[in-house]
Amino acid sequence: MMYDFNCRVVPKNYQHVLALAFAVSEVNENPQILPNVTLGFHIHDSYFSERMTYWATLDILSTPYRFVPNYQCDVQKNPIAIIGGLDFETSLHMAAILIGYKIPQLTYGSFAPEDASQSQSTPFYRMVPNEAHQYTGIVELLLQFGWTWVGLLAVDSESGEKFMEILQTLLFQKGICLAFSERTPKGTYLEEYYNLLSPWLQSYHIIAESKANAVVVYGEDKSMFYLQLLLAAGEAENVTSLAKVWIMTAQLDFSAVAFRTSQDMRPFHGSICFTVHSNEVQGFKSLLRSLNPFTAGEDGFLQQFWQQTFHCSFPNSVAEFSEPCTGQEKLDSLPSSGFEMSMTGHSYSIYNAVYVVAHGLHAMFQSWLKDRGVVRRWRPQLQNLQPWQLHPFLRSVSFNNSVGEEVSFSENRQLEGGFDITNLVTFPNNSFLRVKVGRVNLQAAPAMGFPINEGKMVWHRSFQQVPPLSQCNKNCPSGTRRKKKEGEKFCCYDCDPCSEGKISYQKDMNDCVGCSEDHYPNKNRTQCIPKLISFLMLEEPLGMSLAFGSVFFSLLTILSLTIFRKHQDTPIVRANNRDLTYVLLISLLLCFLCPLIFLSRPDRVSCVLRQMAFGVVFTVTVSCVLAKTITVVLAFMATKPGSRMRKWVGKRLASSIVLTCTIIQAGICTVWLGTSPPFPHFDKRSVMGEIILECNEGSAAMFYCVLGYMGLLAIVSFIVAFLARKLPDSFNEAKFITFSMLLFCSVWISFVPVYLSTKGKHMVAVEIFSILASSAGLLGSIFAPKCYIIVLRPDLNSKKQLIKKK
After folding, report:
1. What are the backbone angles phi and psi of residue 589, rounded to the nearest 5°?
2. pTM of the model
3. How far apart are CA 348 and CA 112, in angstroms?
C-alpha cells in the first residue's frame, strides 16, 4: 500500500503505516488491553493491480521468502486479522482468497454498498460507513447550493459503474441533471502515466466546454494524479472555463493527488471533499514531529520517504540528490501537498481498526478466563488461536477510543462514523488547508439532513458570484413556471409567465398554482392577496349619483302630486279619472324610492324586499297606465250615439284593472318566495380582486317572469295607446301614453342584455338606472305636459279647450 510505480513512498500511504504502528504501540503499552500479549504486523502493497493484490495476499499466507501458500515450515502462523485494502476492488480481490481461511478482513477504504448475498459471503468489517450515505450527502449538498446542472467523473471500474448508476438515479429523483458523465481510466502504479493520458485529454475538453460549474469526482488515488496534471496545465494557461467546484468523494482522500510538492494545487481551491470522519488523536502529531531517519529502528520506509520528501540523500543510497540528509528536517515545515500533519480519515480508520482487533482479542481472552477449566490451558490455546474464532467477538465489539468517540459495528458490520465535509483552501506554496464545514452524521435524525456552514466556505477566484451557479439556465423567477425545451434535458427550460388567476411563489416552480376563491394574484403573480368585499354602496360616487337621481325624481313626483292636488278641480286633473292619476303618481314615487333599497348592504331581508318591491310597485305603475289608456279609448267610444260602452266608463273599471294586474304579479312573487327566493351571495370568481356581495335571484326563471309580466302589460298599454293616438281632442292623453310606453319598453328591452353582460356592482347600477330611466320617462311623458298647462298655461285648462274638435 505504500510504493508508486517508481518505487517511491506515497506520502499519504506512509501516514497510514505510521497510524498503524502508532496504534499497535499504544495497544502494546496499555496494560488494560491484552496484558502480557504483544501485537505485531506485516505490511504488503497491492500497487492497485489485481495481479499484485493476489500475489501480496498469498504472500501473507506463505512462509517468508518461500511463497508456498498453505505450507508453514517454521513457527510463523497465519495472521489473526488483515486490515485492507484501500479501494473496493482491492478488498474484493483479497477477500476472494481470505474467505477460504475465514480470516477477518477490516477494510478502511471499501465504500461500495453490498447486496445481502455479498455481505454474507465476504468477511468484511468496514471501518468506514456505507457509501449510500455519501450518495445522500452529495445530493443534499447539490440541492443546498441549487446546483442542478452538474458533471460526473467516475473511474472505469466495478465500483465506479455502481456509483454512477446509483447516483444518476438519485439525481434524477431530485431534479438534478448531468451535463456530462465521463469514465476515467483505472490506473496502477505499475503503468506509465502517458498510456492513460489520452483518455484524460478527452475528458479535459468536455469539462472545459461544459457550463456546469459543479463536478462530482469519484475514483482512486491514481486518477487524481492525471486530473491534477490537466487542471494545472489549464491554470497555467489561464483557462477560466476550468474553474469548477470539484466535489471529491471519500475514496480519493484528497492528499493522494500530491505525488510531488511542485504540482499546482490552485485549480482545486474551493473544492468540497467528503472524507471519512476523523479526529485528532493525542500524541500522533508528536510522533510525526519526532521522526528522525537516523533513528528509524525497524522502520524500513522512513529513509526512502525522507529522501523523496526533502530531496536529500543518505550515505550509501542511490538517490540522485546533492544535498545530504541531516535529520534536522521537520515534517511540519512541509506544505500539505507534501505531507499532512493532521490524521486523515483513512489513517483514523486504520487506527480504529487496530483497536477493534485488540478489543476483539481481549473479549475472547476474557471469555476463556471465565471458564475455570480452561484457565490452566490458556497459554497453549493462545498459541493455537485460529482466525475464525475471532469473528463473534469482532461483531459485538463496542468501546470508546482515545478521542472519546464510540466504535461499534452495525448489523451489516459497518462502522457508523459518518463523513466530514471539508472545504479546501490552497496557498501559493502548494499547501492546502482542510476546513470542516459540515458532517453527514448517521446518528442524526433524517429530517435534519446535514447543515453546511456557508460562512466558512471559500470559492475559486474565477467565480464572479458566490456561491457559484451551476445550472443549465437561470432560475425562473416567481410569477413564472418552467417550460420544457424540446429535445433537451429536463433541467433546461424556458420561463413561461403564469396564466390568469395563478401564481408561483417560489423560483423554478414546475406549475403555477391557483389562489383560493377569497384571494387573487397580485400584479406580478407572485402571491395571493385577500379579495375586498365589494357591493354598491351609498358612500361611493356611483352610489351617490344614483341616490341623487332617486331623490331628485322623487321630489319632482311629489311636486307633480302637489300641483295636481292643488288644482284637483280643474278640467285637466278631473279628466281621465283623478283618483287613478293620484295612484299613478304615488306608485311612481315608490318606484323612484326603490333604488335606495338597492344601495344598502345585501342581506336576506333587503334581497327579498328589493326584488319584490320592484316587481309589485312597477306592476301597479304600468297597470295604472294601462287603465288610463283603456279609459281614454272607452270614453271616446261612449260619446257615440247609442253606444253600449257608457256602462263600462267609470272608476270601477280602472280600479278593477289595477287591482287584477297587481294581484297576478303578487301571485308570481309569492310563488317566487315560496320556491327559490333571492338571497345574499358572495361571488368570488366574476371580478378579479373582488368578492362581490350581491343578491342572487334564487330562481332566474321567476325573476324573468316578473320582468316578462311587466313587459306584457307595457306592450298592451303601448298597443292600445298607439291605436288611440288619433282620437280627436285638443289634449289627447293617448299620445303621451304611447310615447311613455315606447320609452318604457325601450329601456327594459335594452336592460336584459346589458344586465347579463355586467358583473358586480355595475349589474346593480344597471338595474337602478333602468328603474329611474323608465320611471322618469313615465313622469315626464304623462305629467310634464299637464303640469305645464296647469302652471304656465291656465288658459288652456278649461272644459271648452278639453272637448274642442279639430
Report:
1. -60, -45
2. 0.65
3. 19
